[in-house]
Amino acid sequence: MTTATTTQAQNAGKYAHVNGIKMYYEIHGTGHPLVLIHGGGSTMHTSFGKIMPQLAKTHMVIAVDLQNHGRTSAREIPETFEQDADDVAELLKQLSIKGADVMGFSNGGSTTLQLAIRHPELVRKLVAISALYKRSGTFPWFWDFINKADLSSMPQIYKDVYLAIPGNTQAGLQNMQDKDAKRMQTFKDWNTDDIKAIQAPTLVIVSDQDVITPEHAIELSRLLPHGRLTIMPGSHGAFMGEVMAPNPDSKVPELFVAMLDEFLTAE
Question: Predicted confidence band at 2 (pLDDT cuts at 50, 70, 90)?
Answer without folding.
Answer: very low
